[in-house]
Amino acid sequence: MAKKPRIVIIGAGMAGLTAANKLYTSTGSDHLFELVVVEGGDRIGGRINTSEFCGDRIEMGATWIHGIGGSPVHQIAREIHALESDKPWECMDGFSGEPKTIAEGGFELNASIVDPISTLFKNLMDFAQGKLTEDSAGSGGDACYYNFAAKAALKDCTSNGGFGNQSVGAFLRRGLGAYWDSCKDREELNGYGKWSRKLLEEAVFAMHENTQRTYTSAGDLFNLDYEAESEYRMFPGEEITISKGYLSIIEHLASVLPPGVIQLGRKVTRIEWQPEGHKSIQVPNGYDSRPVKIEFCDGSSMLADHVIVTVSLGVLKSGTGQDSGMFNPPLPTFKTEAISRLGYGVVNKLFLQWSPNGNRPANDKEKFPSLQIVFHPPESELRHEKIPGWMRRTASLSPIYNNSSVLLSWFAGKEALELETLSDEEIINGVSATVSGLLPVSKHHKEDKYNSPEFCNGNVESCDDNGVRFGKVLKSKWGSDPLFLGSYSYVAVGSSGADLDTMAEPLPKLGSTDSDHHPLQILFAGEATHRTHYSTTHGAYFSGLREANRLLKHYRCVGV
Length: 560
Description:
Elements: E1 6-10, H1 14-25, H2 29-32, E2 34-38, E3 50-53, E4 56-59, H3 72-79, E5 100-103, E6 107-108, H4 111-128, H5 143-159, H6 168-182, H7 197-216, H8 226-229, H9 247-254, E7 262-263, E8 268-272, E9 281-283, E10 286-288, E11 292-296, E12 301-304, E13 306-309, H10 313-319, E14 327-328, H11 333-341, E15 343-345, E16 347-355, E17 371-374, E18 396-399, E19 406-412, H12 413-421, H13 424-437, H14 443-447, E20 469-475, E21 488-490, H15 497-503, E22 522-524, H16 537-557
Parallel strand pairs: 1-2, 1-13, 2-7, 5-17, 8-14, 13-22
Antiparallel strand pairs: 3-4, 5-6, 8-11, 9-10, 11-12, 15-21, 16-19, 16-20, 17-18, 18-19
């Protein structure tokens, strides 16, 4: 009897389990294939990792459903009733309330300062993402300043040779400069200490840039390609979190697979494939005609007809470098060059527990406000010296839902990596110093502040009973985790959407001279293989479906 084709999926995250689910549940395919999912870690989910902190359900990785209109993730969550829960969860009330924007030194910024810059930044990003064009942008009323700035930035870019190798960061800064040029001779601000109007506006703009860094995982927006930004697509509708946790989606996808299909603790060290014709592989009992050999860290190996590789772009970058040998023979140049050119960044989340008075729960009047934080630049002589550099590029510190005692900040780039190296004590001291740096500079200003308790400076253990006490700390560590080496992909300057398409191409290709006997030996899935939905869980989902369908189509076409 002929052997069933063996399909091995590397990685039990969204892409891998979607592919496995599709292959197993398709009509008759459970008898057609031998299916194995190997996962290097001790859990399923990949960059989805639902956890609990101080009694609240939180997400260490993927957090949001980015638009509910047409999202397959939202559809699954609705079908399995994962959008309903009696247990409190992260962002259960969405973006609750208006955040307070506090500038270093304790100055709460009013809307007349924050809103124009926020609108400018949004309009500039809308231009970059193709949501606004020169023709569609309005020109009347207050919109004229913002759209003039965007159009001036566009003109500046195109007059310098078009958008080839232009960055989103450069476009944004050109837009800010054009905005200032269009708004000259304005009155200087009073009552904000040493903050000038221009310094405050630039700091608010930088706050939005820092938020954008966490959205894209680009540690520096000057590395984020402008031209490709307009190809990225989001689903319409609101963005929501999943009440029962993102892991509920993963568990649903895995639930159809028989016991033993998913093998945990099976870290792949090497994939041997045969791009140039077929050779039988020697095994203990003779020879096996399967063309791919997968080797694991424990010295064991497995043969396969097809391997769907769903590891992160960070792992692929590490595994295809000059001194590494994840693939033997190495992947073709067109594939390794795409892997090298694309961007892949680190985004981490920091959760902290707080209480206004020892361990006593906060009451309604003592709730921690949702803060947008505006800092002096790291090189500024006006900066608060005790605020650490890794805190200066976070944009917010907020409860994970209204009245929660759990606070959340997001970090990207080198600050996210530095966060991973810090002890809990160093983190608590750094956050405490930052909060103290946001305290009002005088009694007059203090009376005008938000209705919240006093914060304490320095080590949490030294706080008195009247100060805010930061207690437990929990942080993600995606950058140093060898199974991920980062968070998600972006299109870097020098790469393009075409590189994402290249990432998705199987090896050997169907119809190539090398694929006559054993085509589709290595297939690729994961968020970094989707041209328009990269960096998202639904992009990973779509990619898993794509590769499963590729194999289903192949076998049905050849009559197996």
